[in-house]
Amino acid sequence: MATNQDKVKELIDLRNQAKLGGGEKRIESQHKKGKYTARERIAMLLDEDSFEEFDMFVTHRCNNFGMEKTKFLGDGVVTGQGTINGRIVFVFAQDFTVFGGALSEMLAQKICKVMDKAMTVGAPIIGLNDSGGARIQEGVNSLAGYAEIFERNILASGVIPQISAIFGPCAGGAVYSPALTDFILMTDQSSYMFVTGPKVVKTVTGEDISTEDLGGAEVHSTKSGVSHFMVENEEEGISLIRDLLSYLPSNNLEEAPMMVCNDPIDRLEDKLNSLIPDNPNLPYNMLEVIEAIVDQGKFLEVHKRYARNIIVGFCRMGGRSVGIIANQPSFYAGVLDIESSRKAARFVRFCDCFNIPILTLVDVPGFLPGRVQEYGGIITHGAKLMFAYGEATVPKVTVTLRKSYGGAHDVMSCKQLRGDFNYAWPTAQIAVMGAKGAIEVLYGKEVAAITDPEAKAKFIAEKEEEYNHAFANPYKAASYGYIDDVIEPRNTRFRVIRAFQSLQTKRVTNPMKKHSNIPL
Ligand code: HXC
């Protein structure tokens, strides 16, 4: 009969066995691919010795294809809780060494359990994905398992932050769990996401395409926008997740943690007074403005390489977490188009879900005109951004630096979309459109009637001058109270922080409803 000491030894042996996942050979093969194992990833992610594992002894219960003879403790996913910078988080890491991390009924149950715990406690859930998708031997049980996870992703949306790192394959319907989360991060050259892989693409469409070109990190960070962050390697990815979480509250009922601010709140940035070129058609880099006004110049840009005509990301101002949305004049003149509208709308909604105040920096010449945009539904996508801003109840401060034209003026957090403080620099131009377009519409017939080219140019120049005098400034808008104050650019940091300070106790609620019907 086994002694109690034997039983303790058995436990230790079983734990050690579970820690080996699919065995040493497969761990070696994982390392050879330049990838870490599930447990190594969790150890890097969490504060030292903070990991508490759940369900180490779970095994699958599938008897198809001789599966009953092959069981691994833990069954292809490592789950549990731990801390990041002292704050509790829940985590699951798919273990590629066990059936390629493929999702079984029991594997899904483990993920669901940790997600449920995260929801009960109100703490972020982080998924580290590296899986061959549905475990083929388990058939429909695997699909049901995925759907259980999807439903939890949906219910957790807007309640706890959900972050997905893709550190290997993520294919088929498996992509939809990450897609339902708030942020996706992909490692360059070692991760991929697609609904159907290159072989199916070849069969169905005849197109030859590599895994990387179809769903690599580069593609999803620049073309599709599926991935919010692209990183060189797993270490960088893990450190980014830790950094990202520092800007977020643990749940929708909390505020993001306040940091000690060593950067003077009233720091003046003289260079901002001369940043905007005199010629309104010349670009400048909006990132310079952002870096000048945020604490320590530190800005975590989201979707950095996607829809670069708009910038979104997190910073701190006076120690408090703030989400920034800013037009980027140095990329397509900062125009709003389908991609930039979608990108910004999603970010605004994330900030609003999690009580993160929003700073909007405006320099927008309008919406991108043309057939491609209209056929692509710019009306709906632009409305999405307007909807997101108008619905948001978090503190909203807007600074118009230069152009703010037409529909784009309204969309970019204007006063009437419940902007709390709307400031403008003296270089702001708030109008229905730019002078050139306006004169063409207003004086088209007169211009056409002038035959002498010199006289025509003179007439246009005079009218443009007249128009610019009337509208290419912030004072018309300020005279109606649409702009609360015209501020000296160098004071921007101080004015914005003070505005957010006064908004700390802001309480606004939307009318009761089941949910809104944002134009999707
Ligand atoms: C069962 C799987 C598996 C799967 C991999 N394995 N994928 N087992 N079900 N889906 C096993 C392999 O048999 C192998 O077992 C081990 O994992 C490692 O796989 P390898 O092929 O040796 O690794 P590698 O060469 O790196 O290739 C990885 C891979 C490939 C590209 C992911 O395994 C692959 O193409 N797998 C199938 C992917 C797929 O089509 N999945 C279904 C997608 S549809 P041994 O014992 O040899 O180590 C889907 C629907 C979800 O997921 C729907 C949700 C709504």
UniProtKB/TrEMBL annotation:
The cross-references to InterPro entries, in alphabetical order and at most eight, read:
AccD/PCCB, AcCoA_carboxyl_beta, ClpP/crotonase-like_dom_sf, COA_CT_C, COA_CT_N
- What is a single molecular function from GO for this protein? acetyl-CoA carboxylase activity
| Boundaries of every CoA carboxyltransferase N-terminal domain copy | 4-260
Q: Where is the CoA carboxyltransferase C-terminal domain?
A: 264-514
Show the GO cellular component annotation of the record. Answer: acetyl-CoA carboxylase complex
According to its UniProt entry, the protein's GO biological process terms are:
carbon fixation
Q: Where is the signal peptide?
A: none
Extract the PANTHER family matched here. PROPIONYL-COA CARBOXYLASE BETA CHAIN (PTHR43842), PROPIONYL-COA CARBOXYLASE BETA CHAIN, MITOCHONDRIAL (PTHR43842:SF2)
- Give the protein name, as stated in the record: Propionyl-CoA carboxylase beta chain
